Every structure is written in C-alpha cells, then in structure tokens.
Amino acid sequence: MGKKTIAIIFGGFSGERAISEKSAQIVAKYLNPEKFESFLIDIDVKLWQALVDVERIDINKDDFSFQLGDRKVVFDGVFNAIHGTPGEDGKIQGYFDLLGIPYNNCGVLASSITFDKSACNRYLSASGINVAKSYIVRIGDEIIPQEIVDRVGLPCFIKPNDGGSSLGVTKVKKIEEVVLAIEKAQADGVSALVESFLDGTEVSCGCIKVDGKPKATAVTEIVPANEFFDYESKYLNNKTQEITPARLPADTYNEVMRLTENIYHYVGCSGMIRVDFMVCKDGVYLIEVNTTPGLSEASIIPQQAIYAGYTLQSFFDLTVESMFNEPTLLKRIS
C-alpha cells in the first residue's frame, strides 16, 4: 500500500488563526513521512490555498484538490487543526462528508453540540454530568444584571458561548461589571454565556479512540499564572504550570478519566478531544469540551500523549489511521 495523501487544514475565520497555524505546523513536523504525504492547507474566508514551499496554490473547492505542476493532488484524508469556526463547529466537516473525504476529528453533530457551550452543558447534564449554574444572553436580549446575578451569583465568568482559547472571557466580581463583560463576550456577534464561579482545581483530560473505544490519555492539573486560565496564561505567560499527571487522589484522578471517556461516548466523538473540568469539594464539574485541541509541543494533549507512552509521531499516526475506520456520509448512504 502506498502513502496516503493528507491535507492538514488550519486557519479558519476566528481570532484563533495564529494558534491553529502552530498546531498544523506541529502535525506536519511529526506525521510519519514514510506513511503519509502531507500538505498544509490554509482555510481563510475568501481563499483556500495549499502551501508548497514558498508557493500558495488555490484549492478547487468542487472536489478539494489542487494542481501541482502536471499532477492533480487529491486527498485521502484531512487532519483538521482549525480552532474555532469552521473547523470546530461542524461546518467544514459537513463539506468533507459530502465529498466522502474522511477526517480525524468529530463529525457535524458532535462538533456543533460541543461548540455551543450552553447546549453542550444542557445535553450532558441530562446524562448526570455536573455543570455550573448558567445564564445565556443572546444578541438582542435585554441585559438585566440583577436577574443574572440572582441566577449565578458573584463572582461569575462571562464568555462567548461559541468561542475558544479563552478569548473574550471575563471574571466578574461586581454587578456593575456585568454589562461590559457581556458586551465584550458578544463583540464577535455571538451569544454570551454567564456561569457561576467554581472553587476548585482546574484539570484537563484528553481522549482518543483506540480499537473503536474511547481511551483517556492522562489528567493534567492547570495552575494558571493569572487569576484564571485566560488567553495570556495559555499562550503568552510561561509561568502557568501544567502538571501531568495531576496531583489528585487516585480515586478522583480515575473519576476524571472515566467521565472523559463517558462524555466522548455520550456526545459521539471521534478522533482526539480534550475535556476541561473543575474538581471541587462537592464533585467534578464540566467546564467545556474541545474537539480541536491545541497541538503545539507545549500544549496539553501532546504532554499527555508523551506521558501515556506515545511519541508525537506515533500519536499523530494513530489519530490519522483511525479516521479511515470512521463512517463518512458517503459511506453511510452508499
């Protein structure tokens, strides 16, 4: 069997473009060249382009191909490294489903559910997953600070309902700060999610599919340099501590691993995900589910993969190989 040709897509239409590009570069660096021929594909609002050496070549969106000299490059599969829309909300997955091209991460339904934090919390709470008290403020809604505070209390967190990388997130301590924080969260035209403050230890657990079943990788404890794990703590401040394995009692550690695998199953995930939790005195609470987690060498998932005994090459190879066992829309209707 010859090499499979893989498109590593990055970019997208959100403020997470730069982070997405870093993730894609790491995948390109470690994906086994003896098994896969890979191309970086920049997905922007107007242009989709393949990056070949210093050249940018337009993608034919009719069949997701491009012309390289006399060769028409078509793809056997897609490694999705787009954080935010359209890679994390199910939009581009629907496009690849229609073309019958497999991809490495969650499908349309799982992606769209998890990208909408409020919907995801409601969905998983019905399966017994603990979630924070919350209040959704949609674009055009009247903002009534007292009503919000009565529901979730203070302090609280206000964030974009469908954003990532902690962009637009505010920890609100006074009722006078509510309106400004909501406006900040809605700056990109999305709903704002207000959540009650959870006092505990923040942890994150990765999960992949091995032999057709969810398998948690490891639990990482997050000790942010700032007051919470905001954008600066994640990407700009090297004083944040990410400790793998998390310093938790064994039973709590195992509970986080089990909850992560259950969430993977409940939502119907594929590929790799990362689930963030808060470990509190009265239980483990879901923060959010990330279906396109960061993949730089310093990111949480690569740290966990190495702790679990993988090399980054073997981990990414496993992720790519597993996509060919996932059903695409074309396979389901044929």
Task: Please give the share of residues in helix.
Answer: 25-40%
Q: Which homologous superfamily in CATH is the superfamily of the largest domain?
A: ATP-grasp fold, B domain
> In angstroms, what separates the terminal alpha carbons?
24 Å
Radius of gyration using CA atoms only: 20 Å
**CATH topology annotation of the largest domain:** D-amino Acid Aminotransferase, Chain A, domain 1
> In what order do the strands lie side by side in the largest sheet?
8-17-16-13-14-15
Counted up, domains total 3
Which band does the percent of strand residues land in? 25-35%
The SSE order reads EHEEEEEEHHHEEHEEHEEEHEHEEHHH
Q: Main beta sheet, described?
A: 6 strands, mixed
Q: Low-confidence spans: pLDDT under 50, at least 5 residues? A: 228-235
Tally of separate helices: 11
**What is the CATH class name of the largest domain?**
Alpha Beta
Principal-axes shape call:
globular
Please provide the count of β strands.
17
Helix/strand class: alpha+beta
If you average the pLDDT, what whole number results?
90
In CATH, the architecture of the largest domain is 2-Layer Sandwich
Explain what you see.
This protein has about 325 residues and is α+β, with helices and mostly antiparallel strands. The protein has three domains: about 5-105, Rossmann fold (3-Layer(aba) Sandwich), CATH 3.40.50; about 110-130 and about 200-290, ATP-grasp fold, B domain (D-amino Acid Aminotransferase, Chain A, domain 1, 2-Layer Sandwich), CATH 3.30.470.20; about 135-195, ATP-grasp fold, A domain (Dna Ligase, domain 1). Helices cover about 30% and strands about 30% of the residues. The longest helix has 18 residues, at about 250-265. Residues about 230-235 have low confidence and may be disordered.
